[in-house]
From TrEMBL:
Entry keyword annotation includes NAD: yes
Keyword Zinc-finger: no
Protein name: UDP-glucose 4-epimerase
Stored InterPro entries: NAD(P)-bd_dom, NAD(P)-bd_dom_sf, UDP_G4E
Catalytic activity field: UDP-alpha-D-glucose = UDP-alpha-D-galactose
Matches recorded under Pfam families: GDP_Man_Dehyd (PF16363)
Species this protein is from: Alicyclobacillus mengziensis
Taxonomic path: Bacteria, Bacillati, Bacillota, Bacilli, Bacillales
BP term (GO), one: galactose metabolic process
Annotated NAD(P)-binding domain residues: 4-323
Assembly and binders: Homodimer.
């Protein structure tokens, strides 16, 4: 019996594969490699000493997905696969609704057909939208402001209806805050295509010399230093949260959402300073205008995950920056050509 990890070659997926293997699980990966590289899987094998079956297929293909379930036995699914750029979802919403919703529907149909009813779903803090009060609890009103966030909320609603209709299902919905960092080996990490939108990948690329200077999006927010506050979480802590969530779904029924963050907010200027401390490199930056759609402050209440999953984030901001920097300095241009692992189709 194995755990199916959809989107397992992606940033969070690849780190979670390592955590799963280290926890003793067998893992099967499916990925369409639209925003990930086979090299990530090669390196997961290098880190864990275990070769993982990797299927290059798109979840929107029901025949391929049915074949995957016919030829493997899964005890649970961790579903990462999906598009995740907020800005792209605004400019091309149909691409997001089509990809994220139809891929999930095909996956759920196959799970239902083959009697696999344990699921950990990769959601996002973006489902909360702009909140009045912080920290955000899971019971907060859900009002995403981007098509990306709405696709995740729609899937949460779909899952909730499914569990209500078929109570043997067990689903953990994980709402990530701001995942950053990389595996401490420096072999795998975040590899955004093109110019990064997110803060830590952008700083890393300035530090390594790929980009000249960081624009801080606004310094007139109602925060102590005027820059936005976010809840950054190390991707390895996020990965261990998935293992805990998997243990959770395999021992009960129903649907439960969990925030995964540290519960600690850091401003943009604090992140720059932590990165400089971790890397020893001075980051050139300047203040620019606010970015549309940014909330001033966002951080999680993680009480539910700590109490019910017995999950405790362990990395601090400077550790996150150190590991992000190790990965970026090892691989200034991200994943490079490596012998690809055998890909099953
Ligand atoms: C975004 C997504 C979230 C996703 C997360 C991934 C939204 C509403 N949410 O969060 O769904 O999970 O990325 O990490 O977009 N900043 C700069 N200069 C830059 C880049 C960012 O000052 O070049 C600032 C932003 O204004 C923000 C903070 O850094 O205040 C964090 O930004 P970012 O890393 O893009 O994450 P979020 O927008 O919080």
């Amino acid at each position: 019996m194995a755990i199916l990890v959809t989107g397992g070659a992606g940033y969070i997926g690849s780190h979670t594969c390592i955590a799963l293997i280290e926890a003793g699980y067998d893992v099967v990966v499916v990925d369409n490699f639209s925003n990930s590289r086979t090299d990530a899987m090669t390196r997961v094998t290098e880190i864990t000493g275990r070769s993982i079956p990797v299927y290059d297929l798109d979840l929107s293909n029901p025949i391929a997905v049915a074949h995957l379930f016919l030829t493997n036995t899964f005890e649970a699914v961790i579903h990462f696969a999906g598009l995740k750029s907020v800005s792209e979802s605004v400019s091309d919403p149909l691409k997001y609704y089509s990809n994220n919703l139809s891929g999930t529907l095909v996956l759920l149909e196959a799970m239902k057909k083959f009697g696999v009813t344990n699921l950990v779903f990769s959601s996002t803090a973006a489902v909360y939208g702009m909140q009045e009060s912080m920290p955000v609890r899971e019971q907060a009103p859900l009002a995403p402001i981007s098509p990306y966030g709405r696709t995740k909320l729609m899937i949460e609603m779909m899952l909730s209806d499914l569990v209500a209709a078929q109570p043997r299902w067990s689903v953990a919905v994980l709402r990530y805050f701001n995942p950053v960092g990389a595996h401490p080996s420096g072999l795998i990490g975040e590899d955004p295509s093109g110019i990064p939108n997110n803060l830590v990948p952008y700083i890393s690329q300035v530090a390594v010399g790929n980009l000249e200077t960081l624009t801080v999006h606004g310094d007139d927010y109602p925060t102590p230093d005027g820059t936005c506050i976010r809840d950054y979480i190390h991707v390895m802590d996020l990965a261990s949260g998935h293992v805990k969530a998997l243990d959770y779904v395999m021992s009960r029924h129903g649907l439960r959402p969990f925030n995964l963050g540290t519960g600690i907010g850091a401003s943009v200027l604090e992140v720059i300073s932590a990165f400089e401390q971790a890397s020893g490199i001075k980051i050139p930056w300047h203040i620019g205008p606010r970015r549309i759609g940014d909330a001033a402050i966002s951080y999680a209440d993680v009480t539910r995950a700590t109490v019910e999953l017995d999950w405790h984030p362990t990395y601090e901001l400077v550790d996150m920056c150190r590991d992000a920097w190790r990965w970026q300095s090892n691989f200034p241009h991200g994943y490079q050509t490596h012998p690809a692992p055998p890909v099953l189709t």
